[in-house]
Amino acid sequence: MMNKFKQIWIFGLLTILTIGCSDPGGEGGEIDTPPLNGKTVNFVADINSLIRNPAMGWTIYDDASDHVADATIYWDRQDEIARKYASCFYLRWRWSELEPEEGKYAWEYDDNFKALIKGALDRGLKLAFRVYVNGQDNISQTTPQFVFDAGAKSYEVTAGSGGTGTFQTPYPDDPIFQEKFANFVNAFAEEFDDPERVNYVDGYNLGWWGEGHHIQYDNPAKKVETFEWIINLYGNAFKKVPLVITSDSEIGLENERTYAFEGQGYSPRRDGYASQWFPEAQKNLMRSFFPENMIVAEAAYWGAGSISYANNIENQYTWSSWGDYYKQVVSEALTTHANFLDLREAVESARYVSQAKKEVEKFMVFGGYRLYPTTIEFLEEVSSSDNLTVLHSWENMGVGVLPNNNRRWNFKYKVAFSLLDGDNNVVKKWMSENAEPSDWIRGKDYEYNETFNTSGMSNGSYQLAVALINSDLNDKPSINLAIEDKNLITSEGWLKIGAVTIK
């Protein structure tokens, strides 16, 4: 039951279905199913619209290595782009502004922080976070002064543009720093360990720019011990929201695998796409994480600089325009199976949309996952003493994956079928025992044969429907399916398939 709709192309770009489509191996959920001789419904995929779903999409930033954004100004500038293209709002803030006084948290007392959060949620975006503790290249000190006043040992780092002189940064193996930061992370998780609002949290963030570079220790022999401490700190505090770590940092990939990826179920992120800092070996590393993990991609940061500045920094690359550069960024993100990519702050997101709109639309459609049932076959008449048999086939048009197997999600999203009454109320509901959405990767159809017990149902006519439900949220339909005809989807999120009569 191959999807004939694959021959329809977006933007006239005939190569798009080859991007990131190499067969990763294995048969996934594909099975041979005998014909049912029932009614067959073929669905047409939506390959144009912004479809927001958890753990994927274009990301806009407030990266407070300089000044924290003023919420009113920020959302005035980012409003249209947020509504048209983005799915995630990523706050990279200093710990010193998230907790300026011990026990006084921004989410309780900082009206501007609360307005930034509300602005994102009001526009349908989920959140992501990174917390800076190292002041390198920052405009102000990133660790709160109360930590040093309590006796934490520190060293100096260089202020960034707009800052002056040097800032104190704590040694991460210092016990006073660890005590104070653990208090913060636990309070932070108490507020934001909420997957209905938050896509992911960076769970490392030591070193320059929170990327794990140039870390200094009071006792260098405690390097690995300190890494294990902070990975477990975030890992034990956040039980529901996925955690990510910038991969292949100076701590070493094997330590990352041991303590982060395997030990605490982290997912990989990689900064520096389309730059000399992201060579082919790093691209292959990202591909090696797929499809077991979602991948968070981020381009190199150029801010308001000119494209000539980017070319001079890169040396090995020559781009004639920002549009040319963004084309490479999106291509690398798609071919490494990225779930997320950065539109960043207003200056870059506006430049992206004005100079590379087709690339923005391309990742909006094919970045991350984009799921829909290609074909569903079922018997239209069933005895109440019989089983309802359903053959269903699914496709993921995105290059990424629905990370349902993430340890903190624990397979909470499930394929469910239901029978609806005339008011679209669920009368009967069944969970698929075979279909697993985290198996679904681009380039394959996934076919399943299910039987559902209808005993005890009243005779009458019902509407068969399907959804991807969240078992942690009272089985609510929670993944938006890529269906062109939105009239087929009820207000509760069930996709109507066809009439079934119980007799």
**Uncertain stretches of 5 or more adjacent residues:** 1-31
Our count of domains comes out at 3
The overall pLDDT, averaged over residues, is 91
Sheet having the most strands: 8 strands, parallel
Output the CATH homologous superfamily of the largest domain.
Glycosidases
Separation of the first and last Cα atoms: 30 Å
Rg value: 24 Å
Counting DSSP H or I runs of 4 or more residues, the number of helices is 13
Strands of the widest sheet, in order across it, are 10-9-8-7-4-3-2-11
The CATH topology of the largest domain is TIM Barrel
- Which range does the strand content fall in? 25-35%
Structural class: alpha/beta
CATH architecture classification name of the largest domain: Alpha-Beta Barrel
Name of the CATH first level of the largest domain: Alpha Beta
Structure report:
The chain is of the alpha/beta class and 503 residues long. It has 3 domains: 4-49 and 370-502, Immunoglobulins (Immunoglobulin-like), CATH 2.60.40.10; 54-251, Glycosidases (TIM Barrel, Alpha-Beta Barrel), CATH 3.20.20.80; 266-340 and 347-368, no CATH class. The protein is 26% helix and 25% strand. An 8-stranded parallel β-sheet has the order 10-9-8-7-4-3-2-11. A hairpin with a 5-residue loop joins strand 15 (413-420) and strand 16 (426-431). Helix 1 packs parallel to helix 12 and helix 6 runs parallel beside helix 7 (223-237). The longest helix is centred in the middle third of the chain and has 18 residues, at 175-192. The relative contact order is 0.14. The model is unreliable at 1-31 (pLDDT under 50).
